[in-house]
Design a protein that fits this description.
Length: 214
């Protein structure tokens, strides 16, 4: 019968599924910092300054804000928030890079605390619990926990992808997780030849477009 469940099938658990993919992205982001110098974790590798430690700092703030303030569970309730927090008079993008005074350990520690704070919110509230996002326009501030979980999973996975590229630019390291490389195995020569093939294909395609437009 349509919709019938077979014996032995696992009951759906949307909250657990969302939390699993969020944790995967969290772990991946921190893994991308491993083995790098203080300089390399802070290096801006794009014209807009994308850097590994800044990504971690940003997602820590994302979790503390969306799973904290949004649902009346502020993390910075007993202590003043950092100068880059959304309630402070911070410069644009202040949460996307680390100052020389902000240690790697401090930022990673805050991110892990953000996980714990967020997980308590997720475990305590049902998916249809509602909250208010303080920094959104008033007419669309009301959200559900389900909406916020989907949003934060998407945001964190996107930044984990940024970290993949930044880490590869630093030292050539690639891979989805410690346990899953998710890229073809090949030595340095294989990858050089592979990249050369892609470059040749791009040049041929570009030349074709030029002739068509002539």
């Amino acid at each position: 019968m349509p919709g019938a469940r077979l014996p032995g099938m696992t009951e759906p658990d949307p909250k657990a599924d969302l939390l699993r993919y969020l944790q995967d992205a969290r772990d991946a982001l921190l893994w991308k910092l491993e083995g790098l110098s203080e300089y390399d974790v802070r290096r801006p590798l794009t014209p807009t300054g994308t850097n590994l430690l800044g990504l971690v700092k940003h997602v820590a703030g994302v979790e503390l804000g969306y799973f904290g303030d949004t649902f009346g569970r502020p993390y910075f309730a007993q202590e003043p928030p950092p100068p880059w927090w959304y309630t402070e008079d911070a410069e644009p993008g202040a949460d996307m890079w680390a100052t020389a005074d902000e240690s790697r350990e401090q930022i990673i520690g805050l991110y892990r605390q953000a996980w714990r704070h967020a997980n308590r919110t997720i475990e305590t509230l049902p998916l249809d619990a509602t909250g208010q996002v303080p920094w959104w326009p008033e007419e669309r501030r009301e959200v559900t926990l389900h909406h916020i979980l989907v949003r934060v999973v998407s945001d964190t996975q996107r930044h984990a992808g940024h970290a993949d590229i930044v880490r590869e630019l630093i030292d050539g390291s690639v891979g989805l997780t410690k346990a899953s490389g998710n890229v073809p195995e090949g030595d340095r020569m294989w990858w050089q030849e592979h990249r050369a093939r892609l470059e040749q294909a791009a040049r041929e395609a570009g030349g074709g477009r030029s002739r068509a437009g002539a």
